[in-house]
Design a protein that fits this description.
By secondary structure, the chain is of the alpha+beta class. The chain is built from six helices and ten strands, in the order E-E-E-H-H-E-E-E-E-H-E-E-H-H-H-E. The strands form two sheets. Strands 1-10-9-6-7 form a five-stranded antiparallel beta sheet. A five-stranded antiparallel beta sheet has the order 2-3-4-5-8, covered by helices on one side.
């Protein structure tokens, strides 16, 4: 299959700095979004450092004779970022989300930490492939959707896992067999915590190229006050010509 891809990052309407970053290696079919933690110093440094490390090592993710363990790969990135961030910011450290995917032989592999997200649109149905690592999601897991009624306002944005943490990091892994016509979206929460999934699905499924889809989703988030940085990677899979 052919993969048509486009990425865009935008500061949004309120933030004074863009702490998001993205990575796209179309040769090795590796894609990632990272959202630096705004509550800590050095959030932008952390997300950009992740991209630098991916640039230096993404070729290792190309599957040859054996599959690469994305969890181990991300844990290695975490160890470097955690060590460097404590040197730069010894009182607090710094951190970032990371949602990383690779496509090999029509197989999508995802490694995920934090509350950025990966979605799959197939036959008009949007499926979220990642789970947020937030206090909000922990409460929902424990008490169900009713927990939202009494949720402290900071819980949806308070991470329970991130790149840059010094303690042992658990990485979620997901695998999906892809089909021609599938559309994949990677995004930071400046999109999916602002724009409803129904609207995301409608735009992602439109008869448009990845660049136009990405631009329209960014404009939609900004039209709804753009309260956070917005980073999007759109992938469209099609049969080879």
């Amino acid at each position: 299959m052919q993969i048509h891809a486009h990425a865009l990052t935008d500061q949004g309407q309120i933030r004074h700095e863009n702490q998001d970053a993205y990575f796209m290696d179309e040769v090795n079919q590796v894609y990632a979004v990272a959202d630096g933690l705004g509550g800590l110093p050095g959030g932008a440094e952390a997300s950009r450092r992740i991209v630098e490390l991916l640039q230096a090592s993404s070729e290792r993710l190309r599957v040859q004779e054996a599959s690469v363990d994305l969890a181990e790969f991300i844990i290695g990135i975490n160890q470097i970022v955690a060590s460097e961030s404590m040197e730069s910011h010894p009182m607090t450290g710094s951190g970032s989300t990371l949602t990383l995917c690779q496509i090999t032989d029509n197989q999508l592999q995802i490694g995920h930490v934090g509350d950025s997200a990966a979605y799959l649109l197939r036959d008009g149905k949007l499926q979220k492939l990642t789970v947020d690592h937030t206090l909000e999601q922990e409460l929902i897991n424990e008490h169900g959707e009713k927990a939202r009624q009494h949720m402290p306002p900071e819980y949806p944005h308070t991470l329970t896992r991130c790149i840059g943490q010094e303690n042992e990091l658990r990485v979620d892994q997901t695998s999906v067999q892809l089909q021609s016509g599938d559309r994949i979206l990677l995004c930071t929460d400046g999109l999916n915590k602002v724009v409803a999934e129904t609207e995301i699905a409608q735009t992602l499924g439109a008869d448009l190229d990845p660049e136009e889809i990405t631009r329209r989703l960014t404009e939609t988030a900004n039209a709804q006050s753009g309260p956070d940085n917005i980073t999007i990677i759109t992938l469209i899979l099609s049969d080879c010509d």
